[in-house]
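Pasting as-is:
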Amino acid sequence: PRPHPTFRVRPLTCTETRRGDQQVVHSLGDGAVHVSAARHDATFGFSAVFDAGASQEAVFEGSGMRQLVELAMDGFSCTVFAFGQTGSGKTYTLMGPLAQSEAQPASPALLGLMQRSFTCLLEQSQSRGSDLALSASYLEIYNEQVRDLLSPGPPCALPLRWSKTRGFYVENQLSVEFESLEAIVSLLLQGSQRRRTSAHALNRHSSRSHALLTVHIRSRAHHPPTLVLQASACPSKQGTLCFVDLAGSERVKETGSSGELSVEANSINRSLLALGHCISLLAKPRGKRTHIPYRDSKLTRLLARSLGGSGITLMVACISPSSRCLSETLSTLHYASCARRVTTRP
């Protein structure tokens, strides 16, 4: 199958409206996005498009996220990643409001794809009547260092390894078992609070790292006692559901970044450029593909299997409708158009 690029257009912010920015991106329905601005008039087609009025629930149901959860339970490797400019709504789409915590939970209507997927996963596991072992790991890639967001103490760099059987993997990452919605949401919020964020001219809560939360699902169906010998010969299914919140692309001049913020921005942009390069090459027909440079960044190494390997991937591209963000919006649209042509073999 191919990745399913889903587009979400956020509303104009109060700052953009006061500044006099024009809305240059419009949803036409039936998966079409129209960009109309000086010297630019183009229409793009995608699996689904959600405009500024779309609810979090509508994005969950309309993006195919529920089917992705079910495929992960069936033993497939599934990934959803949010892609787009800084401040375009990626973290909100995946997690919901940034201010939420265990003490101050978000309104149920505002919860993002992650919490809704966790609820769906636990409901499905109960209805299927299967023994499930669920665990989660949570990493961030900050300045090309992979760091564990669940391990106690200050985040330290973990080595990224490669093996023939596992592909690229992170050595010594902590995986925490959970059995309830409260437990997995607690892990999500704890890890997110440790993630690197900063404020700059374009975004008061800019993610300065790429974050990857992976739910590992091991299952074995129930068998009657008389079939114990047959059951032991039946291998258990092992699926994964990975959520990737990418740091946003940004132009250092527009964000007013300097010092450490500038170093972070350059690191983010390099890894996103490597990701875009891999997507462009994977979009070519298999017979015309050259070497795919997954090793160019830690991000592309960890997403290698999701992008062009044995996984099933959902891409949620988030864009601002503002005329000031036109260049970055067009870049995101072109990347997502490339992603539509990538095929995987799950």
